[in-house]
Structures
1.
Amino acid sequence: MNRLSRRSFLSATGGILATSAAMSASRDASAAPSERVRHAVIGLGGQGSSHAAAFNEVPGCEVVAVCDLDPARLERAKGKLNKTGELKTFTDFRRLLEDTEIDTVSVATPDHWHTPVALAALAAGKHVYVEKPCSHNVREGVLLADAAARTGKCVQHGTQSRSGVGIQEAIQFLRSGALGKVRMAKAINHQLRGPIGRAPESDPPEGVDYDRWLGPAPVHRFTANRWHYNWHWFWDYGTGDIGNDGIHQIDVARWGLGVGLPKAVIAAGGQLFYDDDHETPDTQVVTYEYDECYLLFEMRLWTDYPLEGHDNGVVFYGDKGKLEVGRHGCDVTFIEGEKKHIGEGSDFGANVRNFVDCVKANDPSKLNAPIAEGAISAALCHLGNIATRVGRRLHLDAAKMECTGDDEANRLLTREYRAGYELPVVP
Ligand SMILES: NC(=O)c1ccc[n+]([C@@H]2O[C@H](COP(=O)([O-])OP(=O)(O)OC[C@H]3O[C@@H](n4cnc5c(N)ncnc54)[C@H](O)[C@@H]3O)[C@@H](O)[C@H]2O)c1
């Protein structure tokens, strides 16, 4: 399997060490976790609020701190958590990370902040649950997986399908050979996102640290679209829907096929449906080529009707039948027509509980969605976007972690970091 390799990025990024994706983490014996895990959530939008509720429900774990640079979101989170014990609040995540009473953090900010916050958290000695996609570009994922392996901390990725018991059983079923040779998987992401309209430049909301929200991204005046949730559709902050919902399906497809980085990527996409501020595609197709199989991704953000039995999901095609892994569970149809229901779909609560269990055991090797895997799935999303943007087939040299003979594509494997917002270095 092609993996993100420690040596590979040396050449591609001028001497910055990357990681072996294998979870050969050196265990940090000095940092034995407490029986009661004290958790903090950074970024309190819809997903951060779900994190706060989910972590608070895990026995032996307590949310003790929350952070958002939008004071209104901070207030809302305080109200929702309705805690009797103390809840520390922060508007600057760096101050939160200085708090030695905090063991673990969730990173549920927009994508362009995932790796910077996660690296800073590792540097501060915390275990990290980082939302998907863990990175805003390929290089960030490499650095994050490397830092996780070197520190020996638990870093769980927000690809919670990996904790769904039904999906785990479906992957076992694929491995058993019961579907024959599986030479193709199709990851489908289609849903009705709706248009976002056109938002004029304006002042940011009162009390918000908008410069920090922009962080490493170039300065751009505030608009209501370059802000909560709709940032997903701007390259400076988001990764489009391939990195938003598509990553869940791509991660399962890659897991089922048992593949890592592809040898080549072909893609096309654009804004074919909505006429609005979107920069990222509303329609996209990507083919990832491997020696023995193809992984296809298709995305339509303008339908919400089930096709092929489901809306979002993955279809694995073998010579004896197909396996569908969708929101409604995992189902096999054999060529002769026989059907078999394997189990249900993804499980966010189980992914959170698995993370807390690993933290208590101080053992990243038991993580269901380790960052080493998450970084590869995120890399596939980034490569799909790069191939779409440059409009050419990418030939990936996984050993060097570069696209052979394609300077324009290679520049998009990383980004320019605004002064004052460079990536933290994890010792
Ligand atoms: N795993 C899943 O199924 C799933 C589901 C939904 C969202 N997500 C992910 O969760 C993340 C958040 O999504 P959302 O819909 O809640 O987005 P959102 O924009 O609504 O919320 C993000 C919050 O982070 C805050 N923030 C931004 N920069 C910050 C910083 N430097 N420090 C502190 N706070 C900061 C913002 O003010 C905002 O309140 C996204 O990356 C998304 O992909 C994952």
2.
Amino acid sequence: MLLSIGIDDTDSYTGGCPTYVAYRIVKNIKNSYNILPKDYPHLVRLNPNVPYKTKGNGAVKLVYELSELQKEEIIQKIVETVKENSYLDYEETDPAIALCFNNVGEELYKFYLKALTTLVTEELAIDLAEKSKVEVISLKKDSKKGVIGALAALGATFLDDYTYELLIYRVKENFGKKRRIDSESVREMDAATYPFTFNNYDYERKRVLITPHGPDPVLAGIRGEDPRTLLKAAGYLKIEERIEGWMIFITNQGTDAHFTYLQGKNLENSLKPFNVIKIYGKVSSMPIILPGGHVKFEVETNSKSVEVICFKESGKLNNIVRKLRNGDEVLVSGGTREFYNKVCINLEKLEILKLVELKKTRAPICPNCNVRCKKKGKRQGYECEKCGFRCKEPEIVIEKRELSPGVYLPDSASMRHLAKPLQRYGLQKHKKKFPLIEGWLR
Ligand SMILES: [Zn+2]
């Protein structure tokens, strides 16, 4: 029989990580029963705009082929492992496990898309679990928030595009301590595996991007196109601390899945806080620089004006937005949020489709003397002060735009997990997924 397991909300701001729980489960089941999952564990990123997420709003899914005899015992083991590795004392943590005993159907897939792009309620999740005969185990009685992510993870099937991440875990005594990876080796790895790994190093800010900063068990995560490249990349790293092991996940990170599968395309429906949104329109106001360096501009779409905010932290993107002008045609993607009591779009991706020609007028040059004429009074045209040459029409100058059409993203350090980096354009996968390879689990 096929058993799919979705797990969410085991982490907290103080530690823990759903991928580590998945790692412990896979290791325990392998050690006790010598059974491996059918596919790479799924690391499923959901709507990055929801207010109650912990770090990256990530959930995990595991799929096993089991015999009826093993079923109960293995489920028991999974629940124990989740309990052991969840931060249950932390008030905001509501771990949940969703178990599906047959093929994951269309309804669960649709729920995944919903949780990827909107704010879904616990009630909806619980209803669907009942209808789909999914067994839900909540580790806390009073709240069932984790059910949303656990169920969405179950439904997550990466159809059009996906990437992989190799996550390296620390030994317990190092949790919370400074991560010891030689940064030079990260740059070497990046150079050797480009463009098939991404977001390894921020060359402008000279910062390693593969290491998180919290007290969680993850030492580093290498993101890339396929498992083999990730193993090769890991070989370049000079790790200067003891590690527990690693595991490769298949994931929707770096795919723009949230924009691709946008639900509720109706603007009125999407313009509530915490949704994913993508709109086409024309810039209808000059960008305004707000205190703190954030930039605000408006986009008009279907004769409705929508405010867009680009935060200072977006780096390069923030500089680009400042150069937009009235009439530029753009596609704006991001999340909705309340800013100064108004729902606006927090810009995550800007596509400039067409730039307007900016025209300026100035006094013409006198054809006789080759000097610039002087403007006479209102509607009286221009006159050359030297020879008295007169003309009515000004010279029209087309201003050079310091901007070109294209896709613009924030600096990699402030990019969302789901955001597709520029180097991945053209690398989208539509083919069959990679089988488990030697060394994917250590
Ligand atoms: Zn003249």
